[in-house]
Recover the amino acids of this structure.
């Protein structure tokens, strides 16, 4: 897949956008949206690809990968502050920064809606692909694997964010009461994880290895991506042996020698990359909508809105570890010169900005060429190390931790005991994956959230903040079929 949005045919676009339904937050469209005659025009390889390309395209949208996602994962955590100007709330970003979560918050609504829209597109693809009898069977099999991977990917983000959620496993039929109940009834967290794992196992059987894709298809989901995501799902369930087993099946990848190179355009989809959301940038070549712009330096000499500024807490963590290589590749400092020669003047409003989202080619544009790195081989090594340590294989876990440390220019860890190695791995995840949308969820899953938030001047309420509130629009629509998360 080229670094561009592959646009669906006008018929398919019409089918995905024209017919409204009461549950508009799920972008539910009836299966009758495409007539038999219209479907015949898509009954070929290009038509088959268009259904799945529509799913990938969704991940470029504002409500799924941009400002709101940055707000609930980065600004809410201890690794970033709201930033921007004191008087600019960013809608609800000031509330997120203060952990003042509300069910009416636009950021939660956006992320919920965006991912259910992606899930609906996946369900559309899975519904229509079997009907395309003139499309190549092997291609349809691969595309089915991609659709299931992407559906699992969205459900993983939603279940980490909200806990139990509705599992929508097919395109609902308008007026069907069973489908209405499916849309509005939460499944347990365990049921959602089981659904995700089933999708990923199906995807593994259908997807090719990354290195078999042509240059034109770079960025599509691969077998390695499915194994890595499955390992991460196992991590959240503390199924340590399965974490190790699935990490061992992520093959053909290696660490990028120079950490800073990962986040340049030349480092996109490189040997460390397992799965990225693709952006191209420039006029009529959309990237991830305003993802870079909202986090770019603000003020005189700047190029963006200035939100999600790295916290002093994060800077101090890098400094305490002597981790200058990753610090300087993660954080843009006021009065510094960037890798492309751009000078960040003293006149920008905030002292720190996110270097990992910086675009040299399309600085400040609505659509930049920056990708979101969601799965990297470094994380696979750290997941394996964590699982091995939890199973008492502490000495054997250390080499995987040290591979990541050594790439950052750090010496081998001096930790020896299981408890100390656990802490070292958690710290390594913080520094390695900083500002890559994992910190909040890591703090919650490892039980560090209350202490970490307190150290950053925030109050994490145990029994409440482990999950975000479900959007009030969903609760109102559910009419008793689903209840709000506790204490919201």
């Amino acid at each position: 897949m080229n670094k561009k949005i592959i646009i669906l045919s006008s018929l398919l676009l019409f089918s995905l956008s024209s017919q409204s339904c009461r549950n508009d937050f799920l972008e539910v469209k009836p299966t009758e949206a495409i007539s038999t005659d219209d479907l015949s025009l898509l009954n070929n390889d290009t038509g088959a690809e268009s259904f799945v390309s529509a799913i990938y395209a969704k991940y470029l949208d504002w409500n799924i990968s941009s400002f709101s996602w940055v707000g609930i994962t980065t600004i809410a955590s201890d690794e970033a502050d709201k930033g921007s100007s004191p008087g600019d709330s960013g809608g609800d970003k000031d509330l997120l920064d203060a952990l003042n979560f509300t069910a009416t918050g636009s950021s939660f609504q956006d992320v919920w809606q965006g991912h259910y829209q992606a899930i609906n597109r996946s369900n559309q693809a899975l519904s229509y692909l079997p009907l395309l009898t003139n499309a190549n069977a092997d291609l349809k099999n691969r595309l089915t694997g991609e659709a299931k991977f992407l559906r699992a990917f969205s459900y993983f983000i939603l279940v980490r964010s909200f806990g139990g959620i509705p599992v929508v496993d097919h395109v609902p039929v308008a007026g069907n009461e069973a489908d209405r109940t499916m849309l509005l009834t939460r499944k347990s967290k365990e049921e959602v994880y089981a659904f995700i794992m089933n999708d990923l196992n199906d995807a593994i059987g259908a997807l090719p290895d990354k290195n078999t894709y042509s240059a034109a298809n770079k960025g599509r989901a691969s077998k390695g991506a499915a194994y890595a995501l499955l390992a991460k799902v196992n991590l959240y369930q503390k199924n340590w042996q399965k974490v190790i087993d699935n990490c061992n099946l992520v093959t053909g990848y290696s660490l990028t020698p120079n950490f800073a190179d990962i986040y340049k355009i030349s480092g996109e989809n490189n040997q460390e990359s397992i799965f990225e959301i693709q952006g191209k940038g420039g006029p009529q070549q959309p990237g991830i909508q305003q993802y870079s712009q909202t986090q770019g330096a603000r003020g005189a000499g700047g190029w963006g809105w200035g939100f999600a500024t790295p916290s002093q807490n994060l800077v101090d963590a890098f400094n305490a570890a002597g981790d200058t290589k990753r610090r300087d590749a993660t954080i843009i400092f006021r009065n510094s010169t960037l890798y492309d020669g751009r000078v960040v003047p003293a006149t920008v409003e905030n002292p720190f900005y996110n270097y990992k989202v910086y675009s040299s080619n399309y600085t400040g544009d609505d659509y930049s060429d920056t990708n979101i790195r969601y799965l990297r081989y470094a994380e696979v090594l750290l997941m394996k190390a964590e699982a091995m340590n939890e199973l008492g294989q502490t000495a054997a876990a250390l080499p995987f931790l040290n591979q990541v440390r050594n790439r950052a220019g750090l010496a081998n860890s001096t930790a020896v005991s299981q408890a100390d190695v656990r802490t070292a791995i958690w710290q390594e995840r913080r520094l390695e994956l900083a500002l890559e949308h994992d910190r909040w969820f890591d703090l919650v899953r490892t039980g560090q959230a209350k202490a970490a938030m307190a150290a950053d001047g925030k109050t994490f309420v145990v029994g409440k903040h482990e999950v975000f509130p479900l959007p009030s629009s969903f609760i109102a629509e559910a009419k008793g079929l689903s209840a709000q998360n506790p204490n919201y």
